[in-house]
Amino acid sequence: SIPFIRTSDINNWEINLDSHKKTSEEVYNQFKAKQNIEVGDILLVKDGGPNLIGRTAYITELDTRIIIQSHIFQIKILENRENIDSYLILHLLNLDIVQKQIRAITFVQGTISTIGNRILDVKLPLPTDLSKRINISNYINEIIKNKTETRKKIHNLSLNSFDD
Fold first, then answer.
1. What is the CATH number of the domain that holds 140?
2. Which residues contact 42 (CB under 8 A, 6 or more apart)?
3. How confident is the model over 5-62, as pLDDT tens digits?
4. Which of 14, 16, 42, 59 is the most exposed place for a label (fewest CB within 10 A)?
């Protein structure tokens, strides 16, 4: 079965793949081309509880076989010569100054809060120095690598892990 990722499954730059909501291989095959979830995509919660809006996750090789609900933005960074990549954007989206902007554009619709297309009004404090962009990206990349390795280790643990 395939994890159906909801807003509450996104936290600390990661996706909770142990979500209780699952979908079939058939449904996955129906949506996988449309959603086109790829390593390096960033997920950003756009609707839901005010405490969830603005949370992000980075798609690693462990996360590509998923379906995401419509309350989540999927951000793809296009190839460019400006040293702007998904690691840099992930960092910028999680800065206090950006999270405050996201809170400021959030409005309540009935029982649900949403940022909708106002995400386009959020200004990211992009460093002008290209080498600083590279340094930030390398640092965030290292964090993502370490988190991914830890997730793999946890996933591979079994009752027999420590037998001689």
1. 3.90.220.20
2. 56, 57, 58, 59, 74, 75, 77, 86, 89, 90, 93
3. 999 999 999 999 988 899 999 999 999 999 999 999 999 999 988 889 999 999 999 9
4. 16
**C-beta separation of 7 from 45 below 8 A:** yes
Nearest Cα residue to 110 out of 28, 19, 48:
48
148 in a domain, yes or no?
yes
Which parts of 25-81 fold into alpha helices (H)? 25-35
- How many domains does the chain contain in total? 1
Contacts of 105 (CB under 8 A, 6+ apart): 115, 118, 119, 121, 122
Domain coverage including residue 26:
2-156
Q: DSSP string spanning 86-125?
A: HHHHHHHHTSHHHHHHHHHH-EEETTEEE-GGGGGGPPP-
Count of C-beta atoms within a 10 Å radius of residue 159: 6
Q: Is residue 161 part of a domain?
A: no
